[in-house]
């Protein structure tokens, strides 16, 4: 639930509570009570800082291999599924040579083999690939060069839905791939 939704919920809970105890409040004390509680909650929700993509790189800290109970993503029940981490995907991207590309499916398979799993979760792998990509873009926005960040464009296809969601857009992915091929 977003901060403003929590605030509204809290406000209505306070309001209902006040009406239930209306005999204990004068109009002025009711207004003071509501003002104090709603303002306090608003300040708390406004003070909450949105995590940067770099902050999101740290969680989860360790990859996990879990045995699945039911068939998932084409893998039968009983298979061992890798839940990677953004750092694991970052390290994988950095070992891909310039001008080479790797399909996300190949990356997931390689990571699973490396971690002694049968397959990698496609959902978390995609989420963490986006986190790595956006963190790399944040780093570039802070002055780091493309050579110093995780080269996500080597795995993210410019035509993929993920490329369209990235803050840099598809054209950046295409330009980076082209630049590496021409170098």
How would you summarize what this structure contains?
This protein is mainly alpha-helical. Helix content is 55%, strand content 5%.
Helix and strand topology:
Layout lengths: L2 H18 L6 H21 L5 H4 L7 E4 L12 E4 L2 H9 L9 H11 L4 E2 L1 H20 L19 H5 L4 H13 L1
Parallel strand pairs: 2-3
Antiparallel strand pairs: 1-2
Helix pairs in contact: 1-2, 4-6
What can you see in these coordinates?
It is a single chain. This protein is mainly α and 183 residues long. It has 2 domains: 3-47; 53-182, no CATH class. Helix content is 55%, strand content 5%. The chain has helices spanning 3-20, 27-47, 53-56, 86-94, 104-114, 122-141, 161-165, 170-182; strands spanning 64-67, 80-83, 119-120. The chain has a 3-stranded mixed beta sheet. α1 runs antiparallel to α2 (27-47) and α4 crosses α6. The protein starts with a helix and ends with a helix. The model is unreliable at 4-25 (pLDDT under 50).
Q: How much helix is in the residues? A: 55-70%
How many strands appear in the DSSP assignment?
3
Order of helices and strands: HHHEEHHEHHH
**What coarse outline follows from CA principal-axis ratios?**
globular
Low-confidence stretches: 4-25
Mean pLDDT over the full residue set? 84
Helix count equals: 8
The number of domains: 2
Structural class: mainly alpha
Features:
183 residues; mainly alpha; single chain; 3-stranded mixed beta sheet
